[in-house]
């Protein structure tokens, strides 16, 4: 029966259901069963999601039952410490006092606590101690230590060099941590020298697109060319995405042109990102030019391409172009969706083409495209001519009934 409880507690841990895991642990004695080390370790791992207070309660219960803790117990306890580095060091000390051998998880978790507490010296100490424990720290350990060194670029570089001596491949997180330390010191060029190949550059540029750091992406792109590395489809796609995130449509267009000059084969995703940047900047003519260029290159536009172009027309109140693109989507294998109709309706409404807005709304219903609140909002920013408002209200009532069953 204890095995059944343990399996259930472990399942709760994997599902981050810490309350259920602890309830099962407390339920064991009521079922006249004695919890063993596996029971407590599984409950501890689940309780770590709640925080230090829940973990300490489980540890106290273990002590009352006089159960001997193992390295898994202490790893879970350290993991729960967040930025409470003193508590993490106490757990680490107790682990060593019991003659238990720390694992890579122990090292990484402790370094992570030091990073959150902004204690780079302690993070380096733990990383260095791992060698005396005959451990082989993995790249995750190095990444965490590098993050802790964000205010010390010299030590970050030394640690990065140590990573290479262990024949470990830097990840995107590794490069980001190194870039961050150099950014704070205003020493971008030092970080760029550490990026060994095109894959590393692409990983870093991709991170820039996720965090909207378009200026960093530009610097990386320039450095890539200085290193005589040829950008590929991933490079240009990531740069376009970074520009899109920051509404830098001019730079997005420049990168599309640069890719063309270098004969880099672009894909639909790159064009979609560039068109999205134009959409956000209400540059509908540039978006349409990109759409035309995409077709000229014999690339097949998808519904995201059409929606970006229609939305750009919506932002600029270009209802004729929006309707043309919507018709193009419906005439091809592409299926216009709720976003297509919403943008087209918005373009008509902005231009006070009320009748066309209503007709598009009715057409969406007829094509089994379910309008949402944004669709109806796009159709209702301006007053309709007398006698037509009832139709909009009727459609709104129909949608409300569909949404609420």
From TrEMBL:
The keyword DNA damage does not apply. PPR repeats lie at residues 267-301. InterPro entries: PPR_rpt, TPR-like_helical_dom_sf. PROSITE patterns: PPR. Pfam families: PPR (PF01535), PPR_2 (PF13041). Keywords: Repeat. The keyword Repeat applies. PANTHER family: PENTATRICOPEPTIDE REPEAT-CONTAINING PROTEIN GUN1, CHLOROPLASTIC (PTHR47936:SF1), PPR_LONG DOMAIN-CONTAINING PROTEIN (PTHR47936). This is Pentatricopeptide repeat-containing protein, chloroplastic. It comes from Effrenium voratum. The lineage of its organism: Eukaryota, Sar, Alveolata, Dinophyceae, Suessiales.
């Amino acid at each position: 029966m204890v095995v059944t409880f343990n399996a259930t507690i472990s399942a709760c841990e994997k599902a981050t259901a810490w309350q259920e895991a602890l309830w099962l642990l407390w339920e064991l004695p009521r079922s006249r069963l004695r919890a063993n080390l596996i029971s407590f370790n599984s409950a501890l791992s689940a309780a770590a999601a709640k925080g230090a207070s829940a973990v300490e309660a489980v540890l106290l219960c273990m002590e009352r039952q006089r159960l001997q803790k193992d390295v898994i117990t202490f790893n879970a306890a350290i993991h729960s410490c967040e930025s409470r580095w003193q508590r993490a060091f106490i757990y680490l000390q107790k682990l060593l006092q019991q003659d238990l051998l720390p694992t890579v998880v122990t090292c990484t978790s402790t370094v992570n606590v030091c990073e959150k507490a902004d204690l780079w010296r302690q993070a380096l100490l733990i990383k260095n101690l791992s060698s005396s424990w005959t451990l082989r720290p993995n790249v995750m350990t190095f990444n965490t230590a590098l993050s802790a060194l964000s205010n010390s670029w010299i030590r970050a570089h030394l640690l990065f060099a140590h990573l290479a001596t262990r024949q470990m491949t830097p990840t995107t997180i590794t490069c980001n941590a190194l870039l961050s330390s150099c950014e704070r010191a205003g020493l971008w060029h030092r970080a760029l020298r550490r990026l060994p190949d095109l894959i590393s550059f692409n990983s870093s540029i991709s991170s820039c697109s996720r965090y909207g750091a378009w200026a960093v992406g530009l610097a990386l792109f320039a450095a890539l060319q200085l290193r005589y590395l040829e950008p590929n489809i991933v490079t240009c796609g990531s740069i376009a995405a970074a520009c899109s995130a920051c509404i830098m449509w001019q730079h997005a267009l420049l990168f599309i042109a640069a890719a063309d000059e270098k004969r880099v084969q672009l894909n639909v995703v790159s064009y979609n990102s560039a068109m999205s940047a134009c959409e956000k900047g209400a540059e509908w003519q540039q978006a349409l030019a990109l759409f035309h260029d995409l077709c000229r290159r014999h690339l097949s536009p998808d519904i995201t391409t059409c929606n970006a172009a229609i939305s750009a027309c919506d932002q600029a109140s270009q209802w004729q172009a929006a309707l043309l693109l919507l018709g193009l989507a419906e005439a091809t294998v592409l299926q216009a969706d709720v976003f297509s109709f919403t943008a087209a309706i918005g373009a008509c409404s902005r231009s006070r083409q009320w009748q066309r807005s209503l007709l598009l709304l009715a057409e969406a219903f007829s094509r089994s495209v379910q309008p949402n609140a944004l669709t109806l909002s796009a159709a209702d920013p301006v007053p309709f001519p007398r006698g037509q408002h009832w139709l909009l209200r009727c459609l709104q009532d129909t949608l409300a009934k569909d949404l609420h069953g």
